[in-house]
Design goal:
Distance between the termini of chain C: 58 Å
Helix content of chain C: over 70%
Number of strands of chain A: 2
Number of helices of chain A: 27
Structural class of chain A: mainly alpha
Number of strands of chain C: 0
Radius of gyration of chain A: 31 Å
Oligomer: heterotrimer
Number of domains of chain C: 2
CATH architecture of the largest domain in chain C: Up-down Bundle
Order of helices and strands of chain A: HHHEEHHHHHHHHHHHHHHHHHHHHHHHH
Strand content of chain C: under 5%
Low-confidence stretches of chain C: 1-5
């Protein structure tokens, strides 16, 4: 592992350098060539990450493959010691590979998507910053470093969501994302503070080593810390109740949605939860909370996705739902299944978003299904890519989504107390299949409909390149985890990941009492997926007329308006804050200024009084005062000479 | 011989009288005149001190007090000339010699 | 001289003199009272002088001293209490002459003459010039009424009493005149020759500077009134 130390830092440094180069030279010099440094940087990171992955995989010398590569001694104050150092174990190696590979394809895609945009260089600079921050987050060795880069990816997300800053809706969405994330980060910060107070260290290794003893002493503390950390994860990964920012974040360009809000940033929460396995597994209450919240989020978001007409919004709610699946998996103890789903989801969701972007590019930035449809002959490559992505998302048998979702369902249904969440997840899987193919059918089949200002419908070759490679990637990763199942941890993926110390905390929890066998679960999920896909296909094959009949009822209206959650938040939180702000301003202006006014008047009054007696402007009276002074001095001299 | 104390006494009384006059009178020119009265008192004091104390080693009597008085005369003359010029100008502006009319620095 | 430490008498003298002075201040319809005040302060003055010099042997100098200082004090008092400004100026001339004669008593003959010439001849003439140019046809309000006389005399009186007390208690009896050294001609002391030698050897720079000062004052005086149109 020591040979890694020399160039492990290149992995985040390359995109960062690219961003700086563009930041300095992009405006004047590079302009339309700004993509070259970033593509080079991110591709370089990808190659290096893959090398790291192979190295870690091949190094079977110890049971726990963990290396800490010290970097820079950042803060050492008393007990607080935060080194910028990298933790390399199978978990971080997998994440590094996934993030950098998906980022490479997204960056290549962006060249085609963003060409001609006046903010071209700015976009690539922000993307480079983001990739660098995400990679550093994955490599973090202690909580403080994790928090710093957590915030950094949040910042880059804000910058990229608000990329079209002239649009008020985009600016508002960026603010919303940042503020809601802040609420989550508040919980995260409290969690870190509690850890520091009780464990007197914030280094992962040290903290995790001390957890068993602390849990025995004070189980309530573990639950509190775990819940606080989960609040941060819920903010970043858009779970109930902090998911409201993710659909609005679709105001950003499609590559941003693909990279940040499907594959990388939102998965940071899941990554953190798995990394802190020791803390979570020490508290069964927290695990149950995680699982329940995940399951409910999955169900809730899927219901909203039923009625949306904006393709990107459908995909956004689908992301929220799938993230819920991942948390459900982690909550019932199968971190491997959760990570595997994260891995496959990154690829096919990125594929779906990029395809949606391609549709937008062809349709002159229209993305609402009300104005477009039946496009399969106009944009063939996009059509095939979207189809592949939809198949994977719906979980049709023997696709990537099938294997990962299957693993989750298996773990959930077999849990001793939370199997009801597992059944909820099954229902959600059915809904997922339906709405995914509803979206696909409405976009590419049925009567052809294009918006009036969409001329010259074409696909960019840069975009096609990325789409094709991602589609290949979807199939590749499918079979990484396939193979012989033993429990839910079979295949290369499970075996590899199972060697990480953090994941082992989870695997130690699960007992193999199979209420449902592997084959039974696979059958249930496969049949449901096929059934509901056919249902959607039949319903929309001839156009939308048949489905329109179901839209005139209050349930549909509620779903279309996202269950009025945003309005609820506005009523409960935003309005009281505004009112209290006005109240404080008023009281500051009137009450406090009034009190100060009294303080102000008093010296004035004194001054006026003094003025009237002593400062009349008459020279004689001044001379009189001097005379008086002189007399006093003489008197004083007299007294002292007695 | 007269003690120097009496000269000082007379000088002190002249000074105080001049001060009282300065504070009391309202006419600008008279106010200046009273300052000259103060000068008289001072001259008496200076010369009194000179007469009674300044014996130098080489047998001469020092005369610093009288030299000081000469300079005092110079200054008083210069001051009187300029003061009168200024009073003239002030009178042209306000047509009165009342010092209370010049209370513009009030407050 | 008799002992001067019994200064309670002077205290009463001062009270009486203050009252008299107050009554003499112009203004507020004090016509008859003013005359009474004049009488009172006159009596006090005479008593003051005779008290000091009662029963001494060496008569000449004391007599002249008392005469000249009496004239000086009398005319000073008259100067600050007159209603007509010209009278004030003229009384001031009298004061100057008295002070000059006092100086003569102290063997400063050059200064005596210089004082009369410069003060009486030049400065006072300037003042009288200014007074005349200010064209007061009638008695103005600001001449007839004194400004806060009570307060001024109270404070001034306190000051005077303090000074007198200091002088008579602290300084009494310790200031014997110093003997004239052997071989010194008293007639030369204070003469123009001696004063000239003093000035031009030890105070050369100051002489030059005062010359410059006079030049500056002359130029300044002209500069101030240059633009003034004189209506005669």
């Amino acid at each position: 592992m020591d040979s890694l130390s020399s160039w492990i830092w290149l992995i985040p440094a390359l995109p960062f350098l690219a961003a700086i180069i563009i930041g300095i030279f992009g405006a004047k010099t590079l302009k339309e060539n700004s993509h070259i440094p970033v593509i080079a940087g991110v591709a370089g990171s990808a190659i290096l990450s893959l090398i790291v992955l192979f190295k870690v995989n091949g190094d079977n010398s110890s049971d726990t493959l963990t290396a800490t590569i010290p970097g820079y001694d950042w803060i050492t104050v008393g007990n607080l010691q935060s080194l910028i150092s990298a933790a390399i174990d199978p978990l971080s190696a997998i994440m590094l590979a996934m993030v950098s590979v998906v980022a490479t394809f997204v960056v290549i895609y962006s060249k085609g998507y963003m060409s001609g945009d006046p903010g071209f260089f700015r976009f690539f600079a922000y993307l480079g910053m983001f990739v660098a921050s995400m990679l550093m987050l994955i490599l973090s060795d202690n909580f403080l470093m994790l928090y710093v880069f957590w915030e950094a990816v949040g910042l880059c997300s804000y910058l990229l969501i608000g990329f079209y800053y002239n649009k008020p809706s985009a600016a508002a969405a960026a603010k919303k994302a940042f503020v809601v994330n802040r609420v989550g980060d508040f919980g995260f910060a409290i969690g870190i503070l509690l850890i520091f107070l009780n464990f007197e260290s914030i280094n992962f290794q040290e903290v995790f080593a001390m957890v068993p003893k602390m849990a025995a002493d004070d189980p309530g503390l573990m639950t509190t810390i775990a819940l606080c950390l989960f609040l941060g994860a819920a903010g970043k990964s858009a779970q109930l109740p902090l998911y409201v920012w993710l659909p609005d974040a679709m105001e950003g360009p499609s590559p941003v949605s693909a990279l940040i809000h499907a594959a990388t940033m939102v998965t940071a929460g899941v990554y953190m939860t798995v990394r802190c396995g020791a803390i979570f597994t020490a508290s069964p209450t927290a695990m149950a909370v995680v699982a329940v919240v995940g399951g409910l989020t999955a169900f809730f978001a899927a219901t909203i996705a039923f009625a949306q007409t904006d393709i990107k919004r459908i995909l956004a709610y689908s992301t929220v739902s799938q993230l819920g699946y991942m948390f459900l998996a982690v909550g019932v103890g199968s971190a491997t299944a959760g990570m595997y789903h994260l891995y496959t989801h990154a690829f096919f969701k990125a594929l779906l978003f990029l395809s949606a972007g391609s549709v937008m590019h062809a349709m002159h930035h229209h993305i609402d299904l009300k104005v477009l449809g039946g496009l399969r002959k106009d944009i063939p490559v996009t059509h095939i890519a979207f189809l592949i992505g939809s198949i994977a998302l719906a979980g049709l048998p023997y696709t990537a989504g099938f294997f990962s979702k299957d693993a989750i369902l298996l773990a959930a249904l077999n849990h001793h107390s939370l199997s009801w969440v597992g059944w909820l997840a099954v229902i959600t899987a059915a809904m997922t299949a339906f709405y995914t193919f509803r979206c696909y059918m409405m976009t590419f089949w049925g009567p052809r409909m294009v918006p009036s200002d969409a001329h010259d419908i074409h696909e960019s070759k840069w975009m096609n390149f990325s789409l094709i490679f991602l589609a290949i990637g979807v199939f590749t990763v499918a079979y990484a985890g396939a193979g012989k199942y033993e429990g839910a941890y079979g295949g290369w993926f499970g075996h590899f990941l199972g060697q990480s110390a953090s994941v082992q905390q989870y695997t130690a929890l699960v007992h193999d009492d199979h209420a449902y066998s592997h084959g039974q679960v696979a059958l249930i999920s496969g049949v449901i997926a096929v059934l509901f896909v056919l249902f959607a296909v039949i319903m929309y094959a001839k156009g939308r007329g048949f489905a329109e009949k179901f839209t005139n009822n209050p349930l549909h209206t509620a779903l279309l308006n996202k269950w009025y959650v945003d309005e609820l938040y506005d009523f409960i939180i935003v309005r009281p804050l505004r009112w209290s702000g006005k109240f404080f301003v008023g009281s500051d202006n009137n009450i406090i200024n009034g009190v100060i006014g009294i303080v102000k008047i008093t010296p004035n009054a004194f001054g006026v009084a003094f003025q009237m007696f002593f400062q009349r402007g008459i020279v004689s009276s001044y001379a009189l005062s001097m005379l008086l002074g002189l007399a006093i001095m003489v008197y004083y001299a007299m007294k002292s000479m007695q | 011989m007269i003690d120097v104390t009496y000269y000082l006494l007379v000088g002190a009384i002249l000074v105080v009288l001049g001060l009282i006059g300065f504070v009391t009178r309202r006419n600008l020119i008279l106010m200046f005149l009273c300052t000259e009265l103060i000068f008289q008192g001072v001259i008496l004091t200076l010369v009194g001190f000179n007469r009674y104390w300044l014996i130098e080693t080489d047998g001469r009597h020092g005369l610093e007090g009288q030299a000081f008085t000469v300079f005092l005369l110079v200054v008083a003359a210069a001051e009187a000339a300029l003061a009168m010029a200024l009073v003239m100008i002030l009178q042209r502006q306000k047509h009165t010699l009342d010092s209370l009319a010049y209370a513009e620095m009030k407050g | 001289m008799e002992s001067l430490s019994n200064y309670n008498v002077y205290f009463y003298f001062m009270i009486a003199a203050a009252i008299g002075l107050f009554l003499m201040m112009p203004g507020r319809g004090k016509g008859k009272l003013g005359k009474i005040g004049a009488l009172v302060s006159g009596i006090v003055l005479v008593a003051f002088i005779t008290k000091i010099f009662k029963g001494d042997q060496d008569g000449n100098t004391e007599f002249f001293f008392s005469l000249f200082s009496g004239i000086a004090l009398f005319s000073a008092v008259m100067m600050i209490t007159q209603k007509k400004t010209i009278y004030c100026a003229l009384f001031f001339v009298l004061t100057i002459i008295a002070v000059a004669l006092l100086l003569m008593l102290q063997s400063a003959e050059f200064l005596c003459v210089a004082l009369i010439m410069i003060y009486g001849g030049a400065i006072l003439v300037t003042y009288i010039f200014a007074l005349t140019l200010s064209k007061q046809e009638k008695l103005e309000d600001y001449d007839t009424k004194a400004r806060s006389p009570f307060l001024a005399i109270f404070v001034g009186g306190t000051l005077m009493m303090g000074m007198i007390h200091l002088l008579l208690t602290v300084g009494a009896g310790t200031n014997e005149i110093q003997a004239i050294p052997e071989g010194m001609d008293l007639a030369l002391f204070g003469s123009a020759k001696e004063l000239g030698r003093e000035l031009f050897t030890k105070h050369m720079l100051a002489i030059q500077l005062s010359g410059v000062l006079l030049l500056v004052a002359a130029v300044g005086g002209i500069a101030i009134v240059k633009h003034m149109k004189i209506k005669l």
